[in-house]
Amino acid sequence: MRPIRLPEPPSPTMGVPEIFETGANSVIRRAVVIGNGFPGSENQSLGLVRALGLSDNHVLYRVTRPRGGVNDWLHWLPVSLHKKLDYIVRQFYYYWTRKKLAPSHSVNGAAVGLSTVLEADLKHIVNMARDSFEKDGPLLVVASGRDTISIASSIKRLASDNVFVVQIQHPRSSLNRFDLVITPHHDYYPLTPQAQEQVPRFLRKWITPREPPDGHVVLTVGALHQIDFAALRGAASAWHDEFAPLPKPLLVVNIGGPTGCCRYGTDLAKQLTASLLSVLDGCGSVRISFSNRTPEKVSNVIIKELGNNPKIYIWDGEEPNPHMGHLAWADAFVITADSVSMISETCSTGKPVYVMGSERCKWKLSEFHKTLRERGVVRPFTGSEDISESWSYPPLNDTAEAARRVQEFLAERGLRLRP
């Protein structure tokens, strides 16, 4: 009788099966992203998932609110209460008129041509995490934005042994509802002496956060995003034919819109056009883009004053969006001060970034700009700059650093990402 020959143990050079290393249930192979329909928030989650190497194995769910009519004035309500109120209004309307209200406009699904985006259903996600745990291991859940807080924390509460939940941006609630919180340092501005002086004493206990960051909070300088070396290299190739022939230096101007912490109108638009005209002789070409938050009165001033200049091209908003091409091919940027996301992306390129209107910002946004200036990452745009001047700084690397910290926290839990 021939002896039974047992299989040889796995060779180190061939790789060790996951079950021999740390167990099949200790390897994270997939991610769920919970978004709120706003690119500035969702790009942060998608950027982190990309940096963790899970961009090819993730699903995007979206928390949606009723839209249109009075609903646009009710965004201060918790999303669950908002939906219930919308349902009650519809029932009353049908009772009195016997007619159904037209469906609320949604930021989800077919309403915006995103049929692959699923409604964020708590029970479905929890059951998926539990039922697939033995086969596929734990689930990484990444959420960003106020409307995602409730569902992300509920997923952790109901399936804590099957998920690792990361909440991006300070949740304005108990941090232990999540496994990890990633938030900009300026979210803690309310705790500084300067902020305390700006708030009446009787209101201070209502300002959040009320406690300094604890051990499972990762602080960043700016916002997370999807811009890295590989993305820029791909964009440089994809947009080569359009941007390579442009006269240099190429100045890219990104214009956002006023926010509660950074208010402006046509006054800033006029100041911006005057400054651009002052530096135009030193530019080979200028490309201007507006965001979907840019007020029409602001864009109209820019178009009227600069639209007919042969050196200047103003993007008309039609697809394809040249944003990635701008990041890859620009020699310098001018950004309005209102958008942390836009500024964070451009400051990750290592190219000169000039900011317009930071003196109009207040509260935590003023702290963000102060930090960038102290680090030498941005300079104010005054109209006296030499755009051909190249100056450098350590690029913001928040997304990669946050991904590294996530892996450290996973290791503390005995988890690791699929190699």
UniProtKB/TrEMBL annotation:
Q: Name one Pfam family in it.
A: Mito_fiss_Elm1
A single GO CC term for this protein reads:
mitochondrial outer membrane
Q: Which InterPro entries match?
A: Elm1-like
What Gene Ontology terms for biological process does this UniProt record contain? mitochondrial fission
The name under which this protein is listed is Mitochondrial fission protein ELM1
Protein species of origin: Ricinus communis
Taxonomic lineage of this organism?
Eukaryota, Viridiplantae, Streptophyta, Embryophyta, Tracheophyta
